[in-house]
Amino acid sequence: MIAIKSVKHNYNGQQQLSFKDWNIKDGEQWLLLGESGSGKTTLLHILTGILKPAQGEVNIDSTSIYNLSSKELDQFRGRKIGIIFQRPHLIKSLTITENLLLAQSFAKLPEDKKRIDEVLESLDILSKKNAYPNELSQGQLQRVSIARAVINKPALLIADEPTSSLDDKNAEAVLALLMQQSALNNATLVVATHDKRVKDAFTNTYSLA
Amino acid sequence: MSPLKISWKSLWSKPLSAWLNIMLIAFGTGILTILLLASTQIEEKLNNNSKDIDLVVGAKGSPLQLILSSIYYIDFPTGNIPLKEANELSRSPFVKRATPLALGDNYNGVRIVGTDSNFVSLYGLKTQSGKFWSANFEATIGATVAKEQNLKVGDTFFGAHGLTEVKDVHDHHAYKVVGILVPQQNVTDNLILTNVASIWKMHDEGEHEAAAVAHGEPGHIHTDDEHAEEAESLEGKEITALLIQYRSPMSVAMFPRMVNQMTSLQSASPAMESTRLFSLIGVGVDTLQWFAVLIMLIAAISVFVNLYNSLKERSYDLAIMRTLGASRTKLFFIVILEGLLLTIAGTIVGLVLGHFAMEIIGHYQESSQAKLTGRIFLNSELYLLLAGLAIGIFASIIPALQAYRSNISKILAKN
C-alpha cells in the first residue's frame, strides 16, 4: 500500500509544484503519465525517498518514509524499492553477478547467488552472469537493470521512461518483462512515461497536469 | 560485496593510473627508506666504533683524517709519531689508558694493526678460537676476516705494504694466525691484530732485503736506516697513533690543549669529528629527504586528482549505489578506502624496494669497514607506513566528502 498525501515541492526555491493525492494498492500496476518538464521525475524521486518534499507525506508499506533517518531511508529504499532508469546504468568495474550482489549487500540482505541465477534465468541473460557491463548490448543491459531492481523482492517497482529510447518491438518486450517481473515478485509497479505506446497496457493512470 | 572489494575492483578498472600512483608513492617511500637505513647504520657504526675512545693522538694533519684512519680504518693515516713522545703522553696523569696503533700493511685489503693488550681491553675483545697474539708475527684476526679470507688458526699469510694494494708483498716473514675473535659488530671484525714490533720488523728487514720499498707516503712505518739494527731502542721508532681514554672528565679540558701546544702532535676528538662529518653529510641527506618528501607530495596530489576525476565520472555510479541502499557513510568509506589502498600499496612496495636497494648498495660497497645492509628493520619504518596512511586519507578526504554530500536526486535527474 503506497500513498502520497498533500505533497508539495519547491522547484528552485520558488516555483511550487503540488501533486494530487495518490493511493496505490498492493500488486497494482500504474502508469504515471506526463509530458517532460511536468514534474514526473520529481514525483518519482519523492516516491522513492531520494528527494524530500517541502511538505506532505509519503507512505510505503505503512512506513512514513521521510520520518526515517537518512541511513534508515537508504536501507529501506534498498530493500523495498526497485528502480529502473531510462538508461541502464551498471557499475562498470563489476561483473553482472557482482552488480547484483552489490544490490543485496547494500540492502543489508544476505548474499544469495541462487536468487541471482534465478532472476537472471527468468530474464534470459543467465549466460552473461560473469560478463562485465561493457560486453553487453543495450537491450541486455536493460534486462540486467530490471534484474537488479527486482533482486531483493521489492514492494514497489518503479520504472522511469523505460521505453522512450527503444523501438516499438523492444519497448513492447521491456514492458512485458516489467509486468511479468512485478507479478512474479509480488511488487506494485509504477511506470512513468510520456510514451503513448505504453498507455493501453495499463488500466490505472495517474496524470500530471 | 564488502566496501574493500568494491574499492579494489574500482581501482583496477583503471590499472594504469593505479600503477602510476603506486609507483610515485613507492619511489618517495623508497628514497626515505634508503636514507633512514643508511643514516641509522652509519651513525650506529660511528658510535659503536668510537664509544670508549676519548681522544686520538697522531701526526699533524686533518683531524678528521686522523679519526677516520685510526678509529674507522677508512682513510689513510696522517703520518707517524715518534714512539718516545707517544710514551711520554701515555704516562701523563690525565690518561687512564693509551693504546698504540701501528698501521701500514694489509693482507688482501684487510688492514694489519700493530698494537698491544690495551687494544683488547679497549674493545672488550674475546677469542672464539685460539689465543691473542703475543710473540712477533703472531696474529689474531677478526671474525669477518676469518670468514672472508678463509683463514683459520695455524694458517700463515704474507702482509703487503700499503693499506689496500696487494703489490710489495713482505715475503720474508709470514704471519701466523694464532686466534680468531668473537664477532663484535664493529670495526675489529675486519682487522688483523699483531704486536707493534712485528710491523717494525717487517719493515726493518724489508729495508735491507729490498731497498726499493717506497718511503714517505703517509701511514707507512718509517724506520731510520741508521738505527735499523737497534730494534729494541726507542730512538727512531715510530707508531701511527695513540687511542686515549681519559682518567677523569677534567682531562677533556686540559689534555687536548696540552698535546696540541706542547708536542709536535695533534689530538682529535672522535665525538667532535663525527659530529662534523655528520653535519657535512647532513646537507646531502637533507636535500635528498626534501626531494623524497616532494615526491610524496606530488604522489598525494596525483592520488587526489585521480580520485577527484574518477569521482566526477562515477558520481552517477555512486548515486545508483545510494538508490540500492548504500548509506552516505558507506560511500565515504568506499572513496577513502580507494585512497588508502593506493598509498598503502605504494608504501609497502617502497619499503621493499628501499631494503632491496640498500642490500644491493651494500653488496657493491668496496669498504668492508662500513658495509651497509638492507636486511635490518627499524621501528621508524612504521612511521613511513603511518605517513602512507596519512597521505591516503589526506588525498581522499575531499573526494570522499563530496561523495558523502552529493545530491543524488540532482545527479539522477541530469541523465
Explain what the structure shows.
- The complex is a heterodimer of chains A (209) and B (415).
- By secondary structure, chain A is of the alpha/beta class.
- Chain A has a single domain, classed as 3-Layer(aba) Sandwich (Rossmann fold).
- Chain A is 33% helix and 24% strand.
- Chain A contains six helices and ten strands.
- In chain A, strands 1, 2, 3, 5 and 6 form a five-stranded antiparallel sheet that branches. A five-stranded parallel sheet of chain A has the order 7-8-9-4-10, sandwiched between helices.
- In chain A, strand 8, helix 6 and strand 9 form a beta-alpha-beta unit.
- In chain A, helix 3 packs parallel to helix 5 and helix 5 packs parallel to helix 6.
- The longest helix of chain A has 17 residues.
- Chain B has 415 residues and is an alpha+beta fold.
- Chain B folds into two domains: 179 residues, no CATH class; 214 residues, no CATH class.
- In chain B, 54% of the residues lie in helices and 15% in strands.
- Chain B is built from twelve helices and 13 strands.
- In chain B, the strands form two sheets. In chain B, strands 1, 3, 4, 5, 6, 7, 8, 9, 10, 12 and 13 form an eleven-stranded mixed sheet that branches.
- In chain B, helix 2 crosses helix 10.
- About 6% of the residues of chain B have low confidence.
